[in-house]
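FW: tagging you since you asked about this chain on Friday. Here's the raw sequence from the shared folder, copied in full. Didn't touch anything.
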Amino acid sequence: MLRKSSFMAGLLVLLSLSAQAQEPPIRIGIIGPFTGKSSTDMGESIRGGAQVFLADINQIGGVMGRRIELVERDDQAKPDIGVAMAKELIEKEKVVAVVGFANTGVALPSAKVFQEAKIPLIISAATGAAVTKQYMPPAVPSSFIFRLAASDSLQPAVILNDVIDKRKLTQVAVLHDDTPYGQFGKDNLLAEMQRRKMTPVAIESFKIGDQDMTAQLTRAKQAGAQIVILYCLSSEAAMVANSVSKARLNLPLVGSWTLSQRSFVELAGNNAEGARMPVTFIENEASNRSSSFVASYLKINNVKSIPSAVAAAQTYDALRILTLALMQANATDGEKIKAALEDMKYDATSTVISRYKKPFSKNDHEAIVQSMIFIGEIRKGHVGYAYREDANSSLIVRTK
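HL: got it, structure written out here
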């Protein structure tokens, strides 16, 4: 009798496992510039962070007894390609949600595709504030566009807190590229300066691909600039750093988070030393969660460093939160996933940047708040903490 019971129990387990194996996987889209000049650091890191998540989640059996399958698409850092790939993920690949996008100019038109299809999108690298704002109430009654990245409505405040309040540098020049990212970033920076009742001594721009910004920098120096604040992609930021050195202008640089990317350091070399930027994550952070994530990233992606540690960590955290929303919704319907994201019952603790308690709400689709952002600095070719106290506070659990 005992043998028969054991046999039946074993058979039931096998049947259960077989039924689970026959359940189709839950398909989640991953999109970014895997190719595309000036943006591949971000694209590679979005993909790499997603692969770390995939290994972790499927190791514990996936979600709702179903494995997760990631469907990748390359937007090539081009708006029209981004829109086409967004439609393909929804219409052909039947994904339940999407994580990614690195370029504001690509995310802006592509977000409309997800909004109209009622498929949740969590942006994990593009920081243009307008991307999420365009779909928030009262503009629309219900938004499917979320973000887990430091919005450009936050970064200028963090930059100026460092430049003005801590370093006491008040003669500021602003340099930006002519992309939507650079334009919106400049506008947000000027708005923050206006809030402080100050104006820059110079505002200069340049085009993507420009190699020499000496003329713009010389005018800024002649206007009395003590420091230059950049809003541009990493490759052009490196050209600015090289131009500062070439013209011997002795102007310190601070910029948006893109200065934390590998390509900035590689292209600028020693000229990158001392440059600062707001970041949510540093690759050599001392916490156990951080070091474990970095070790997994390097092993799974077979690389020696993370091209954009910020984009990788933000993508991982976005996917973790999305997983919890799927569990809470107990469904793959876009409306139910969105509702779960806006009212999370679970705390996100298996994350890297922070532990999140209700990261989103109906009227707030930004998971990152100012207290999660700190200043990084290039030292000996690597991003480190500009201030030692930030290294200690980074170990503290941060919630909204």
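FW: The chain has a mean pLDDT of 91.
HL: agreed, and The chain is about 45% helix and 15% strand.
FW: great, closing this out.
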